Amino acid sequence: MRAAPTLAEGFPDLSQIQIAREIHWRRWLAAAAIVVVLAAIARAFAAGQIEWSYVSRFLTAKVILEGIVNTMVMAVLAMALGIILGVVVAIMRLSPNPVLKSVAAGYTWLFRGTPLILQLLLWFNLALVFPTIGIPGLWTARAVDVMTPFLAALLGLGINQGAYTSEVMRAGMLSVDAGQYEAAQAIGMGRLRALRRIILPQAMRVVIPPLGNEFIGMVKATSLASVIQYPEVLHNAENIYYANSRVIELLIVAGCWYLLVVSILTPLQMLLERRFARGTARINR
Amino acid sequence: MTKPLVAIRSVSKAFGEFQALKNVSIDVWPGEVLCLIGASGSGKTTLLRCINQLTMIDSGGIWLDGELLGVREEGGKLRRLTERQIARQRLKTGMVFQRFNLFPHKTALENITEGPVQVQGRSLDEVRAEAIELLRRVELTTKADSYPSQLSGGQQQRVAIARALAMKPMLMLFDEPTSALDPELVGEVLSVMKELAQSGMTMMVVTHELGFAREVADRVVYMDHGAILESGRAADVLGSPREARTQAFLAAVI
């Protein structure tokens, strides 16, 4: 090898020449094909036996609006119950205490292992098992009066959700480095305080995307509560089409509302993610 | 006659089949800087972790400031303390970890104030003033509002030292505080530790920085296979070791 002060020849200077834009004709072709297929589907539906005037008329009908409000109320409350149960059960599952561990594992096994619709029906029909409920000597009531469709749906959806959420929370807590827990202990924190102040805030960052997923699932799962007479949007749409026989039109109305709600939730989730990303390198600039 | 701040007597610890500590006994005196050296797996870190009870010993006893750690004697038997009592005992020691373990979702200042405010229940205003003073001491005044991810390794470790000092411990434990640092950042952490040693803090330092040990340590302890093989003044142990295995270790490290 020679110690050459000059650069070797045969390698021209390309720094002034631009890289040409390519025409992706295959992508254009594929896009055109998809547009044609979508147009054909739209035309089929337009020509099909759907009275679109019914769709637009019922889209903002009072009963439907009440239904979507009930859907959202139930989704939010049941998810809140699910998250509370999920956090508690995840902490129990990760505790060194074998009794707490077994209780948590048993809960998850039971409520993940049976269909949601079956659990809803069981809660709703609890009066068949216990005609009266209460605290002996203090307060009693007939179970049919207490176990309204609202309460049965809330318990059924929330407790079932808790079983799934606990696994999401457990994954989030396990994703936090063990050194974080040791550092918290080293400054004198007990287990619960370390979880609340140090571990859970860091776990939140990891669990928000799957929890967003779970919440979207919950919005749609509330439709199962129609079988126990809870007046959510699908139940109300069904009641209308039992009367006027416009089945497809009202199902489309309900579908539009579900799509709208889920579309609004996605940007909300991104806001939350940003809130919990404090201190992570990907957000700091 | 002063009493040792830490008295370790016949302490053993096994992880499954692996005997990490074998019948270790040693005293650490108030104001003393003790450096623990030895090959990896020799038990230095385990000994440190036993003192602030991140690891529980199998047998023997550790006394800190005259108080038996982790257990109490009752009718000729030893009973484990509750988690709350152990947490209270930990307040007497400050721990600095090899991997810093700063809380990533809190700023440098919040990392320091977290313990005094949340655990000791002191007022945030008072603690914040002390935290700013501690940041000045580790020369990070301008980084109070930075998150750990915005700091270099050396800066993170200095915040970690300030976080431990904020609890006003009587003993500082350093577990290989410079091993995870880029070579050019080691000096800034060692100089903070040197300043701390000069201020009279009792320190136990697991380290591979023999230069630091020679300069700062009052005593150097060489550990080998879970036991203390040799201990004495830094100049003696590092300069003219008695044991063949100490000689071999020092020859390999230098």
Keywords:
heterodimer, A: 285 residues, mainly alpha, MetI-like fold, two-stranded antiparallel ribbon, 11 helices, flat, B: 254 residues, alpha/beta, 6-stranded mixed sheet, 4-stranded antiparallel sheet, 9 helices, 37% helix, globular
Description:
- The complex is a heterodimer of chains A (285) and B (254).
- Chain A is mainly alpha-helical and 285 residues long.
- Chain A has a domain of 157 residues: MetI-like fold (Orthogonal Bundle), CATH 1.10.3720.10.
- Helix content of chain A is 70%, strand content 3%.
- Chain A has 11 helices and 2 strands, in the order H-H-H-H-H-E-E-H-H-H-H-H-H.
- Chain A has a two-stranded antiparallel ribbon.
- In chain A, a hairpin with a 3-residue loop joins strand 1 and strand 2.
- In chain A, helix 2 crosses helix 11, helix 3 packs across helix 7 and helix 3 packs antiparallel against helix 10.
- The longest helix of chain A is centred in the first third of the chain and has 32 residues.
- Chain A is flat and about 100 Å long.
- Chain A starts with 24 loop residues before the first helix and ends in a 9-residue tail after the last helix.
- The model of chain A has no long low-confidence stretch (mean pLDDT 91).
- Chain B has 254 residues and is an alpha/beta fold.
- In chain B, 37% of the residues lie in helices and 27% in strands.
- Chain B is built from 9 helices and 12 strands.
- In chain B, strands 8-9-10-3-11-12 form a 6-stranded mixed beta sheet, with helices on both faces. A 4-stranded antiparallel beta sheet of chain B has the order 2-1-4-5, covered by helices on one side.
- In chain B, a hairpin with a 2-residue loop joins strand 11 and strand 12.
- In chain B, helix 3 crosses helix 4, helix 4 crosses helix 5 and helix 5 runs parallel beside helix 6.
- Chain B is globular.
- At the A-B interface, helix 8 and helix 9 of A face helix 2, strand 8, helix 3 and helix 5 of B.
